[in-house]
Amino acid sequence: MIKRLETESIAKLLVEFSWPAIAGMIIHSCYNIVSRIYIGNIGDDGVNGLAALTVCFPIMLIFFSIAAMCGLGGSSLYSIKLGEKKYEEAGKVLGISIILVSILTVILVVFAFFNLNSLLTHFGASETILPYAHDYIVVILLGSVCGGISFTVNSFVRADGKPSVAMYTMIIGAAFNIIFTPVFLYVFHWGMTGAALATIGGQTMTMIWVLVFFCSEKATVRISKKIFVVDIGLMKRILAMGTPPFAMQLINSVIMLIINKSLIVYGGDLAMSAMGITQSIQTIMIMPIVGISQGAQPIIGYNYGAGMFDRVAETVKKSIVAATCFVLIVYFLIKLLPWQFISMFSSNEDLKSMGVHCISIWFTALPVVGLQIIGSCYFQSIGKVIPSLILTSTRQLIFLIPAILIFPLFWKFDGLLYSAPTSDLLSALVTGICLYLDMKKELKARQA
What pLDDT score was predicted for residue 163? Predict the structure, then answer.
């Protein structure tokens, strides 16, 4: 079945691989969004609970960055090995990735527990917000290994040519979260602890599901003792190819930290809650693009490994068009119905007013993000680590962080909001130029 990647129509493959990834990523985003919606509507504690989630989110992104490095780096190399017909090495890549994400996550958990209150304060928790954030993050930390393994192995499911199975993985976890979050909050009254338990419960279910898949005959490579080896060469390649997504998520965490610090100065706890809602809505907008990039990744990686660059180029072009169309649809919906989107998260009028103001500015240039994400995905998928890392860094590190630090000095809270569209436009321009030049070079080399 995996050989279809070098013979089937690119459009057909992209639809087949992307729509489950899109659905899966949207469903996966429910982990955070559902918690925000339910917590935001629990009464007087809702605004403080939303602010606590905003504080915890960058810490969770640090853990996700580890899973992204092992999962996306490992699955990219896995796709290339399948394209080269090196199935034994592909199996080792899977085993090493599971080992890496487990060990690195445990190390991070131990560090976090020894510095928990100072860590939360450093990430923006006020004295009012700290108890809410503490109750939530403790449970998240205890279940973080399950979350890391579930994301890592599910990336391999998609690379194995089973996008529908990867989608079902997300559905299982999200369904658990959607069902049990209101039960834990409104029936058992477990507060932030209950919301976190629902999230971790969903991630544990997905971990079990993906591990069972790779133990079955449906997988191209099956889990066995022989895949869990110490191969320094493969380990280095996994970490190298996973560096761009790792850097992207780690940079996201740093950005959230800087934003939270700015919010304390220019807006306070209410602004913290409003930005949390803005981030949740942005997740809804970005997830289809990420889904398309994940759907394109095995097609690009396999065909690059098979020496069929014309199919690589076609995949990239069609992915950019599809990503831009998806984000434009959601973009105009939010522009037309901002109050309706904000009202899902809270009934507090002051919070809703600030939330509408945030999204009206923060999302101004988001339609160009599709080009930037797909462009970075292309370089990562073909193993060009340095260009991928640089392009991943442009939107978040090179352009956004300086804007976040400088703009508020002149325009206060609105300056913070305008930093996002500025970064989006500049990074898309740089990515577009680099993508065009590299693909032109690759095509010319194969025509020589």
Answer: 79
